[in-house]
Specification:
By secondary structure, the chain is of the alpha+beta class. Among the domains are: about 45 residues; about 200 residues, Penicillin-binding protein 2a (Domain 2); about 70 residues, no CATH class. It has 25 helices and 26 strands. The strands form 8 sheets. Strands 2, 3, 4, 5, 10, 18 and 19 form a 7-stranded mixed sheet that branches. It has a 5-stranded antiparallel sheet with strand order 12-11-23-22-21, sandwiched between helices. The N and C termini lie far apart (about 130 Å).
Length: about 750
């Protein structure tokens, strides 16, 4: 081999060695230097995580009965990945969605194609998620779609869990509702670690569901699946599954039996008010406004602890409608004034003039500011004849004719006169003139603070939030010369008058003018007096427990402040308030001492009741009816407030309502609250029970002719020979049902 050939061989050898060296270096880099990175990248390419929602915690009443839980539902879902892989054209896709909507509608659920498209376009769901398009569908659809998987790619009928409000519309304003979290909530809520939100998650929107969201919300679990290069699921990694952790349970102070009683009687009172024709006052030239009674509220508190025993607002709504989110149409209906605002919680959001229920706080100011016995105001124990009208001292002395004394003369309701009035009797008969004197004296006498009445009311908690653990509570309003002027300066168009006169203080003294309170504020103020002066923050939750029953935290009673109540004054007021119900001249005597309130007399001898009627005038509308009460008077266990809008005198509407409630509450005879399922069964069974009663007794019950069954024929109620009706797994005894109905008709 010549020298040239050997040179070429050496060059080729060098080149070959260099190539093999480079290849070896590259293999070493790939295998050693980035092997871990490569493995991790590969793993991420073949696995996908799918969140598993955690069940929300339950809401229980004080006896441990489940008010809100979670139930199984059959729902239809569509997987967008599987739908896309089917490669349907626009026409075929439209036909498939139309067919789905038709089948769902046949099963009794209203579903539109636009609803399905909106669900599929919802960015809250991922590419691998099964997107719900219809809840609570018939199980027949499980078979229908299961047998036609090739015609409906990506469509599944599966079992899932949704929120369940077992008592329907009962206690709705306390419990609240849940719905899909929105962008604003996602940005503003600060969930606990592990409880983060995705857009499709359900979140508390109102009531306890909102206020205790952090406790009720659980920790989501996680499924892991392997997918191939085309995104198809190969298998599920059971070894990587993370189970969800259910949320904690919230135990309320509310007794659902008493809540049912309160809501039932509140609705009854509204109905009775609407059916009442207002009487024209003697000498009146205009017809009185109708009792429209658009709504009302009632609150029962334990005065010792501030615990809410019951809190009702009428009208109400069924939070089960919120599952999956309210439809736009239903949302508009629930927030329409023409429908009396069912979502408006009148117990904490409604602001009303308290009327004569406010006289308790005016009396407190007069006693503790030493107004009694000064100027025109008689001593608290001095007997004084009420002439039925009051002439302001600030008016001209010669302006004795009513037409010359515009704004100078203030009268009792109906211009009634009362003999031998002292402090207790002023409350019993509700003399306005007695409190007109106090109101003007406080304002014009330099010996007294001109805001003494307002300060007393504020010390009891009026004009400020009570602290009840519910969202959207209003503050009410306590007018003074200073804040009236400031309100005028801030908005002279809305409030053209900034001056304060003696007449304004006079109106304030009887809970009129600009005074506004919420029912829960008024209940808490009377509870403060009832317990001797300790103002509590109303509580609704006693404790939070986990699913094992272990207490997570206790939420005890909370003292806000102390009100100095002179014991002598307290006894005088108790005498007067007890007379409201027990004295023949008491403004609520009729409600508690006749058969007008439930066919029976209230057991006043065993359970003496202290109370105060209130009738608040509203310009251009019927009066607001109020009644405040606590009992037993000397050792109160319950305080109750009832407020009914545009319903008439407190003595005629609100007082009988309170009597009908507190009788079974104090005597421990409140009946068990029926669940929504039981109420439906009773309603559906009633027509058959009426027929059964007619057959057994011969009583045609013609007054019940308008009652119809809401059940469908194929699944409707069945009457058995023993006088029971079977409805959806419930059995209803006709005898007690008809007896109850006849009793209610007689009472009404």
């Amino acid at each position: 081999m010549d020298e040239i050939a050997r040179y070429r061989m050496r060059v080729l050898a060098v080149v070959a060695i260099s190539l093999f060296g480079a290849l070896g270096a590259r293999l070493w880099y790939l295998q050693v230097m980035i092997s871990e990175q490569a493995v991790a990248t590969a793993a991420s390419n073949i696995t996908r995580g799918i969140d598993v929602p955690a069940p929300r915690g339950r809401i229980l009443d004080l006896k441990g009965r489940t008010l809100v839980g979670n139930r199984l539902t059959t729902m239809i879902t569509i997987n967008p990945r599987e739908l896309e892989e089917a490669d349907l054209g626009p026409i075929e896709r439209r036909k498939m969605l139309t067919s789905i909507a038709i089948e769902v509608n046949r099963s009794g659920q209203l579903l539109k194609i636009s609803d399905i498209e909106a669900s599929l376009a919802n960015r809250a769901f991922g590419y691998y998620d099964d997107i719900p398009i219809a809840l609570d569908v018939s199980e027949d659809l499980l078979v229908f779609f299961g047998e036609r998987g090739d015609l409906y790619p990506g469509v599944k009928v599966v079992d899932s869990t949704v929120r369940s409000y077992l008592y329907g519309d009962l206690a709705t304003h306390l419990l609240g509702w849940v719905g899909p979290v929105n962008d604003t909530e996602l940005a503003t809520r600060n969930p606990q670690p592990g409880k983060e939100y995705r857009l499709r998650d359900e979140i508390g929107k109102a009531g306890i569901e909102l206020m205790f969201e952090g406790d009720l919300r659980g920790v989501a679990g996680r499924r892991v699946v392997e997918v191939n290069r085309r995104g198809e699921i190969v298998r599920e990694r059971k070894d990587l599954f993370e189970a969800p952790v259910a949320g904690d349970d919230v135990v309320l102070t509310v007794d659902i039996d008493i809540q049912w009683l309160v809501e039932t009687e509140l609705e009854r009172a509204v109905s009775l008010a609407r059916a009442t024709v207002p009487e024209k006052e003697v000498g009146a030239t205009e017809e009185p406004p109708d009792f429209l009674a658009p709504g009302g509220a009632a609150v029962i508190l334990d005065p010792a602890t501030g615990s809410v025993v019951a809190m009702a607002s009428y009208p109400s709504y069924d939070p089960n409608e919120s599952i999956g989110g309210f439809t736009l149409e239903r949302w508009a209906e629930l927030n329409d004034r023409a429908n009396d605002l069912p979502m408006f919680n009148r117990a904490i959001q409604g602001e009303y003039a308290p009327g004569s229920t406010f006289k308790l706080f005016t009396a407190h100011a007069a006693w503790h500011e030493e107004v009694f016995g000064v100027g025109r105001v008689p001593e608290a124990d001095e007997l004084w004849d009420d002439p039925g009208f009051y002439f302001l001292q600030s008016c001209r002395a010669d302006a004795v004719e009513e037409e010359e004394a515009s704004g100078c003369i203030f009268k009792n309701a109906g211009e009634k006169t009362y003999e031998r009035v002292d402090l207790p009797r002023s409350l019993t008969v509700s003399s306005d003139v007695y409190y007109y004197m106090i109101g003007e004296s406080v304002y014009i006498n330099p010996l007294h603070s001109e805001t003494a009445i307002q300060d007393a009311a504020i010390s009891y908690g009026l004009g400020r939030k009570s602290g009840v653990p519910l969202p959207f509570e209003q503050t009410g309003y306590m007018p003074t010369a200073a804040n009236r002027e400031q309100r005028h300066l801030d908005n002279p168009v809305a409030f053209p008058f900034g001056e304060w006169y003696s007449g304004d203080n006079v109106n304030t003294a009887i809970g009129q003018g600009d005074v506004l309170v919420t029912p829960v504020q008024l209940a808490n103020a009377y509870a403060t007096f009832a317990n001797g002066g300790t103002r509590m923050a109303p509580t609704m939750v006693s404790r939070v427990v986990d699913r094992g029953g272990e207490t997570v935290r206790v939420i005890g009673a909370r003292v806000v402040s102390q009100v100095d109540i002179d014991p002598v004054f307290r006894e005088l007021v108790l005498e007067g308030l007890s007379g409201v119900t027990a004295d023949p001249e008491g403004t609520a005597y009729w409600a508690f001492n006749s058969e007008a309130t439930n066919g029976t007399y209230f057991p006043l001898e065993e359970y003496p009741l202290a109370g105060k009627t209130g009738t608040a005038e509203v310009r251009g509308k019927a009066d607001t009816s109020l009644f405040a009460a606590f009992g037993p008077a000397q050792a109160p266990t319950h305080v109750m407030i009832a407020v009914l809008e545009e319903a008439g005198f407190g003595s005629q509407v609100a007082a009988p309502l309170v009597a009908r409630v507190l009788d079974p509450v104090l005597t421990g005879t409140a009946v068990e609250a029926p669940t929504a399922a039981v109420r439906y069964a009773r309603s559906a069974a009633l027509p058959l029970c009426v027929s059964w009663h007619e057959w057994i007794t011969g009583d045609t019950l013609e007054r019940l002719e308008g009652i119809d069954s809401t059940a469908e024929p194929e699944s409707g109620p069945v009457l058995d020979a023993d006088g029971t009706v079977r409805v959806r797994g419930q059995r209803v005894a006709c005898g007690p049902l008809v007896d109850e109905l006849i009793s209610n008709l007689k009472a009404d």
